[in-house]
């Protein structure tokens, strides 16, 4: 039985959040497109290698991460999911805890959904 795009995107979002919690670089690499881009909560931009290097180097440690309040919009071979990203983390030893409104951009490649972009905005 095939699942809906909504279900597939939500499941991929949960796999992504789990990989971030574990700092699992291999899983994060597999879940994202080659040209994945992150726009951080303060406007910085990281390409895929820079994003993965946060975990490779140990600069980022994520103790908890939830991805909820998710709404998915399906555009055929692309999808957008907007939700809430709540984390307990430290970057280079400095707390980076927070709640963010997160926009995930997904594309369908080779029959599989991949995360192509992520933007975080602080929730006031």
Number of helices: 3
Distance between the termini: 41 Å
Q: Based on the coordinates given, report the CATH architecture.
A: Roll
Q: Regarding quaternary structure, how should these chains be classified?
A: single chain
What's the helical proportion of residues? Answer: 25-40%
**For the report, how would you describe the main beta sheet?**
7 strands, mixed
Rg over CA atoms, rounded to whole Å, is 14 Å
Number of separate domains: 1
CATH class: Alpha Beta
Compact overview of the structure:
The chain has 124 residues and is α+β, with helices and mostly antiparallel strands.
Could you characterize the architecture of this molecule?
The protein has 124 residues and is an alpha+beta fold. The radius of gyration is 14 Å and the shape is globular. Helix 1 (5-22) runs antiparallel to helix 2 (25-31). The protein is 27% helix and 52% strand. It has a single domain (5-122), classed as Nuclear Transport Factor 2, Chain: A, CATH 3.10.450. It has helices at residues 5-22, 25-31, 48-56; strands spanning 32-39, 45-47, 60-74, 78-91, 94-95, 98-109, 112-122. The mean pLDDT is 95.
What is this structure's SSE topology?
Blueprint: H1 5-22, H2 25-31, E1 32-39, E2 45-47, H3 48-56, E3 60-74, E4 78-91, E5 94-95, E6 98-109, E7 112-122
Parallel strand pairs: 1-7
Antiparallel strand pairs: 1-2, 3-4, 4-5, 4-6, 6-7
């Amino acid at each position: 039985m095939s699942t809906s795009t909504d279900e597939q995107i939500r499941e991929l979002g949960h796999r992504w959040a789990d990989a971030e919690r574990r700092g699992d670089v291999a899983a994060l690499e597999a879940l994202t497109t080659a040209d994945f881009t992150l726009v951080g909560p303060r406007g910085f931009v990281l390409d895929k290698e820079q994003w993965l290097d946060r975990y490779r180097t140990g600069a980022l440690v994520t103790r908890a991460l939830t991805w909820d309040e998710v709404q998915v919009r399906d555009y055929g071979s692309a999808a957008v999911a907007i939700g809430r990203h709540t984390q307990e983390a430290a970057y280079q030893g400095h707390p980076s805890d927070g709640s963010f409104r997160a926009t995930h951009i997904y594309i369908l490649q080779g029959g599989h959904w991949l995360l192509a972009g992520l933007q975080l905005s602080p929730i006031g």
